[in-house]
């Protein structure tokens, strides 16, 4: 006698295959890990510089916060850190909210850069006047802020080989280098910082007093052989003209990378949404 056993329902298990591209996911993750760490490093340097100057306890010590190198580093580091964090964690955790935030940050930054470039081209004279005002501030507070002092020394000595805004006479704006400072015993009166001096071949030890008295009436030596007489404003314009192709190439590469990041983030979000829709 045959016994008919009840037929058990056969369960069909679907193979869970991810619709999210692993290549795209880890490409975004790896790229933004670098930006995350870079932003953290820049932010750390900026905070350390401010703490060394005791700015956190006395913000009044900063003559112009927008021109303070440490503050600029803090701003750049913060923005880079946030963008890198949202992209890195958003891709790793497949978090659509963080990926959307990452794409929005990049879009806003891209729009800001394009707007700044267009306005900078249109209002070149205004940009030049603002740069002049900023450099004047650096000169006035040269001895008061070590960060600004190091920055202006680097500009004059290493980058542009220049002196002052339009020439060495601009250093009369600084109380230490003003010719009237001789009355109060300043040894730097009617002089310029050492960063204005021309480099000498095979010079091992930098002469920090090479700019003393070079603007003094009746100076006995040929000033043009001792210091750079070209102003930094003119030197900057010449540097931009010489490197126009390189600057344009770098700008387009940066813009392209940002557009690529936005597209990748949006594609990854679309893949995540498609995967969620499949299993619900």
Topology:
Layout: H1 22-52, H2 69-92, H3 96-122, H4 124-140, H5 146-159, H6 232-242, H7 244-278
Helix pairs in contact: 1-2, 2-3, 3-7
Supply database-style keywords.
280 residues, 7 helices, 0% strand
Give a structural overview.
With 280 residues, the chain is mostly helical. The chain has helices spanning 22-52, 69-92, 96-122, 124-140, 146-159, 232-242, 244-278. The protein starts with 21 loop residues before the first helix and ends with a helix. 25% of the residues are buried. Mean pLDDT is 87; it is low at 12-18.
In summary, what is this structure?
By secondary structure, this protein is mainly alpha-helical. The protein has 7 helices and no strands. Helix 1 runs antiparallel to helix 2 and helix 3 packs antiparallel against helix 7.
Structure class: mainly alpha
Please summarize the sheet with the most strands.
none
Termini separation comes to: 47 Å
Which residues sit in consecutive blocks of at least 5 with pLDDT less than 50?
12-18
Q: What fraction strand?
A: under 5%
| Overall radius of gyration | 29 Å
Strand runs, count: 0
Shape: elongated
Our count of helices gives: 7
Estimate the helix proportion, in percent: 55-70%
């Amino acid at each position: 006698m045959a016994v008919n056993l009840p037929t058990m329902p056969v369960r069909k298990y679907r193979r869970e295959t991810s619709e999210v591209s692993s290549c795209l996911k880890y490409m975004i993750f790896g790229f933004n890990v670098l930006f995350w760490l870079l932003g953290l490093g820049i932010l750390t340097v900026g905070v350390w510089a401010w703490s060394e100057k005791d700015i956190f306890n006395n913000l009044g010590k900063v003559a112009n916060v927008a021109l303070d190198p440490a503050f600029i580093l803090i701003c750049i580091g913060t923005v880079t850190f946030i963008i890198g964090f949202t992209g890195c964690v958003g891709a790793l955790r497949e978090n659509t909210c963080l990926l959307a935030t990452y794409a929005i940050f990049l879009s806003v930054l891209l729009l800001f850069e394009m707007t700044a470039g267009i306005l900078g081209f249109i209002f070149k004279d205004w940009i030049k006047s603002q740069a002049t005002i900023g450099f004047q501030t650096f000169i006035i507070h040269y001895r008061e802020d070590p960060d600004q002092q190091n920055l202006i020394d680097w500009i004059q000595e290493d980058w542009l080989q220049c002196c002052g805004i339009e020439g060495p006479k601009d250093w009369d704006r600084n109380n230490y280098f003003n010719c009237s400072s001789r009355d109060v015993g300043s040894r730097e009166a009617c002089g310029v910082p050492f960063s204005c001096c021309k480099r000498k071949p095979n010079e091992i030890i930098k002469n920090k007093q090479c700019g003393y008295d070079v603007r003094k009436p009746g100076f006995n030596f040929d000033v043009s052989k001792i210091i750079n007489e070209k102003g930094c404003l003119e030197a900057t314009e010449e540097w931009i003209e010489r490197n126009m192709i390189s600057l344009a190439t770098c700008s387009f590469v940066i813009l392209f990378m940002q557009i690529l990041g936005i597209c990748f983030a949006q594609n990854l979000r679309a893949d995540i949404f498609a995967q969620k829709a499949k299993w619900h």
